[in-house]
C-alpha cells in the first residue's frame, strides 16, 4: 500500500514539475515578446467623435500582416468585414511605413481613399480602414526620434 501511494505521489510531483516548467518557459517567451519595442500603434475609435485613444494595438515588427486570422497575422481585427489576411504594413529601412491591401473584398482605405495591392505611404495621424474597422496610425515616439536623428 505504501509503495502504491509513493508511486502516485511521484507521478503527481512529476506532472506538477512539468507544468511549472512549461509555465516558466511560456512566461519567459511572453516577457521577450512584450519587451519588443513598438514601432507604431493602431488606435481604435472609442465611439465618441474625435476620440481615438480608447485602445491601441502595438506594431512591433517591420513587416506586419493585418487581418482576422490569428494563425496568419500579427494584428488581429475580429470584425467580419475584415478578411483573414486583409492588408500588410511594412516599415522600410528609411523608417517610412507602407500599406497595401492583400486582395480583401471590403477594401483598405487611407484617409478615405481606397488603396490596392500597390504600397501606399502612410503617415502619423492617418485614418486607416480595414473593412468597417477604423484606426488611426500613430508612429511611436521612439520611431519619430529615429526619423529625426537618421540622416536622409
What keyword list fits this structure?
2 helices, 31% strand, 152 residues, alpha+beta, six-stranded antiparallel beta sheet
Short précis:
With 152 residues, this protein is α+β, with helices and mostly antiparallel strands. The chain has helices at residues 2-35, 141-149; strands at residues 40-44, 55-59, 63-67, 75-76, 87-91, 97-101, 108-110, 113-115, 120-122, 127-130, 133-139.
List the topology elements.
Layout: H1 2-35, E1 40-44, E2 55-59, E3 63-67, E4 75-76, E5 87-91, E6 97-101, E7 108-110, E8 113-115, E9 120-122, E10 127-130, E11 133-139, H2 141-149
Parallel strand pairs: 3-4
Antiparallel strand pairs: 1-2, 1-11, 3-5, 5-6, 6-9, 7-8, 7-10, 10-11
Amino acid at each position: 500500500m505504501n509503495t502504491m501511494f509513493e508511486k502516485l505521489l511521484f507521478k503527481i510531483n512529476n506532472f506538477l514539475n512539468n507544468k511549472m516548467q512549461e509555465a516558466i518557459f511560456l512566461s519567459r517567451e511572453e516577457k521577450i515578446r512584450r519587451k519588443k519595442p513598438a514601432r507604431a500603434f493602431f488606435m481604435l475609435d472609442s465611439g465618441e467623435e474625435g476620440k481615438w485613444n480608447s485602445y491601441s494595438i502595438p506594431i512591433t515588427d517591420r513587416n506586419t500582416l493585418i487581418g482576422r486570422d490569428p494563425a496568419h497575422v500579427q494584428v488581429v481585427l475580429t470584425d467580419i468585414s475584415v478578411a483573414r489576411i486583409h492588408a500588410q504594413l511594412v516599415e522600410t529601412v528609411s523608417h517610412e511605413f507602407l500599406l497595401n491591401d492583400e486582395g480583401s473584398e471590403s477594401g483598405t482605405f487611407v484617409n478615405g481613399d481606397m488603396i490596392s495591392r500597390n504600397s501606399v505611404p502612410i503617415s502619423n495621424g492617418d485614418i486607416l480602414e480595414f473593412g468597417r474597422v477604423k484606426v488611426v496610425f500613430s508612429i511611436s515616439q521612439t520611431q519619430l526620434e529615429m526619423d529625426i536623428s537618421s540622416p536622409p
